[in-house]
Amino acid sequence: MAVSKVRFLFSAAFLGVLSSPALAEDADIVVTGQGLQRSPGDAAYDVISIDRRRLEMSASGRMEDVLRDAAGFQQFRRSDARSAHPTSQGATLRGLGGNASTRALILLDGVPVTDPFGGWVSWAALDPARIGHVRVTRGGGSGVLGAGALAGTIELSSIGPEQAPGLSAGLAYGSRESIDADATLTARLGGGFAMLSAGHARGDGFIPIVAASRGPIDRPARYRQSRAAARAVIPVGADTELQANGSLLLDQRDRGVPFTGNANLAVDASLRLVGRGQWGWEATAWLQHREFSSGFASIGARRATVSQSLDQYNVPANGLGARIELRPPLGEGRTLRIGGDVRHVTGRTEELVIATNIGRIAGGEQSIAGGFAELTLLPVPGLTATASGRIDHWRLRDGRRTEISRTTGALVAANSALYPDRSGTETTGRVGLAWSPLEARAITARAAAYSCWRLPTLNELYRPFRAGNDSTVANPLLNPERVKGIEAGLEYAPLPGWHLGGTVFWNRLDDAISNVTIAANTRQRRNVDAIRSRGIEIDGMATVGEYRMIGSYTHISPRVRASGAALALDGLRPAQTPRDQISVTAEWNRPGVARLGVTGRYVAGQYEDDQNSRRLDGALTFDAVASVVVVRGVSVELRAENIANKRVEATIGADGVVERATPRTLWVALRLQR
Fold this sequence. Notes:
Layout: H1 2-18, H2 22-25, E1 46-50, H3 52-55, H4 63-66, E2 74-75, E3 91-92, E4 104-108, E5 111-112, E6 131-138, E7 152-158, E8 167-174, E9 178-189, E10 192-203, E11 223-235, E12 240-253, E13 262-276, E14 280-299, E15 306-327, E16 334-353, E17 358-377, E18 383-405, E19 417-418, E20 422-435, E21 443-454, H5 458-462, E22 465-467, E23 470-473, E24 481-492, E25 499-519, E26 522-544, E27 547-561, E28 580-590, E29 594-603, E30 606-607, E31 615-616, E32 619-631, E33 634-641, E34 649-652, E35 658-660, E36 665-673
Parallel strand pairs: 4-7, 23-26
Antiparallel strand pairs: 1-6, 2-3, 4-5, 6-7, 8-9, 8-36, 9-10, 10-11, 11-12, 12-13, 13-14, 14-15, 15-16, 16-17, 17-18, 18-19, 18-20, 20-21, 21-24, 22-23, 24-25, 25-26, 26-27, 27-28, 28-29, 29-32, 30-31, 32-33, 33-36, 34-35
């Protein structure tokens, strides 16, 4: 019933947009499909841009892989959305890791994309073919865009008609019987435009467990992912446009062991009004619907036997939200942004514990309502000063866990509870300065300080889970996480296409939620005192005619600060946080003829667990892409992922069993653009 309602709302929104008379009446008005202009205050922060050209040259065609161009970006596991468990695919930056929830604010056209129940990301829905630009802002406190930007903000912008051909379609065949197909259709309609896109990917998959650890039960991890999206942008006045977006994802994966299949249905829809008159303004509303299911297995000695341990047969979740922003006309050199946003999510997990025949239902509701203001001044030529503040009120309600024996029908009182409602208020802010001397405008010095917060997800609060033979216990008493940070940087951009920048930073994440070991093979989500992370980031780009090189490096020293029951973790590194990351890409592009690109990436060793007892080795990998135009509008592509077939370790269990990420994968593709 919930899916039917979401589909009805999605369809009604688009029928209303496409039938609007404004399409005919405002043919001379050209819309952009974007939000309001970037604030000049962004110059004070560490921002990386990934353009359309780079998005088109990804060997994997996966957004989570493209984002690794910004060194410091990481997921909880090194695997991508073809083989990883969806619940492990949260994202963070600057070493603020330790669990699988997203600690960065991730937006598509101004709308959050993280799962409303668990905080992970449905990466398979974010097809680079329909994305025009990506901005990664490292560092917390982007309060004007919403709460939750502890580690940074990742903004994805849909492709516009000026970037997209009328028709773009591709069909690729790859290793292990893999197929990846996509198509995007874009059309101008009066003063607006509409876009439809769809894609399908499937593969027989690879065996995740490395050869030395495999047993009779191990098999390839198959995947099948289908996605569709629609977007319409129309003028509704001389200086106002309406943007409507909708997307659908059906994601099915297997984890390479019997009883471990999982499926995810993700439906998103949003409307955004943008006014570009004397008073600039934006008003956005969105909804999310998720239906997730997953099986879990208990594995015997030497991986010779397997049995089903848990059937997580239904995890429905819904998210609703709205945001408004106003920009009063204050005159030249002054930009004021004021507004507010609200978000409400509900979700629960419905599970069957096989061994005891006990049914479990756990979940609740949470809401956040906040207001923000940001003022940016250009007091003298070359100087930018910006300050912003945000106040949020949050509430958790109707939290519960109920376990019932399916054998007797009796309530398991020891494992059932109604949790008290909780609420609180958080105040955060951010300040920054940027200075470009008049006599050396190619140089920009910047500094910033910020604070931010994140509310625990419903998943962290109420849902226990199992990964192999390791189990993690939920904690309904978790407190919000809060980060404080400072940074300073220097940028040098002497010419278009040339850039070199460096940033040093210090962050402290208080009440950090971590998976703390409490017994053999058992962890619990707990607030530890803090995670302290400090490091350096270096980014650069050089362009000479048809050649371009892009590089990014980060060195991070994150440490846990803990006391009490978690004292043993004090001074250790958070789980799944590498010390060094490097990404370098070299490209050659002759439009209408051919394109070549090679990307090298290095990720240093990291620890699987909070006690730093299980180490995942570092890995150096290379990807390559070659595209040759055979006739006008038709090109042939050869793509290679992990060319040297380097073993990229994704996880290691308490029994020493190692799981790997994507091995060497070769593709041949045909692409049509008209």
